[in-house]
Request: fold
Amino acid sequence: MALVGLVRVTTSKQETRRQHDDLDPICVKVFEEKISGKLEVVDRPGLQTALDYMRPADLLTVQEADRLGRNLLEGLIVLNDLFQQGISVKILHGIAAGEHTERSLILDLALALAEDHRRDIIRKTRDGLASAARHGRTGGRPRVVDDDKRRAILTRRTAGQSLREIARGVGVSLAVVHGEIKAAEAGADEPGTDTVRGTGAAR
Reply:
C-alpha cells in the first residue's frame, strides 16, 4: 500500500506550497491540478492521472477534504465516483482526517463546513470593501507618494526632466514616476480637467 497525493487549487494564482509540504514527505508521488468548475472525475486531468498511477490498495491522499472539490456538491460527486471505483481516500487534516472507503456523515460534514467557511470569507471581504467604499476608500494597493511628491514629479516633468532624473530627485522608483505621469496625462484627457502634462522623451 502506498500514498498517492493530490494537490488542487482553483486558479493558477493560488499557492500550492502548503499542500506540497504535507504531501511530499509521505507520498510516493504527488499530482497537481489547477481547475475550476469541473464535477466529474473524468473532467479533472490531474485527479485522473493520479488514479491511473495508483495500484490496488493505494490510497489517494489529500491535505483536507475540500481538496477533492470546491464545494459540497462537487466534493460529494467526486467521493461517490471514487468509492464506486473501489478507491480509498486518506485525508490528513480536519474533522474527517483518516482513511475512508465509503461515504460517511463526517465526510459530508467536513465538505459542508469547508463550503460554509469559504462563503463566510467571501461575505466578509465584500462587506469590508463596501464599508471602505462608503468611507471614500477603495481596494487595492495604497499609493506610495503623497500630494507633495506628486506635485514635485509633475513639476519636474513640466520642466523637461527625464523620468530617471525625476526618480532620483524625488526619491521614488522609476515605476512610480511613470505611473504618476500616466495618471496625470489620463486626467488631462478628461473634459474639464486641468492637469500639468510633461514634455520630453522618457529615458
Remarks:
- The CA atoms of residues 130 and 136 lie 10 Å apart.
- The mean pLDDT is 80.
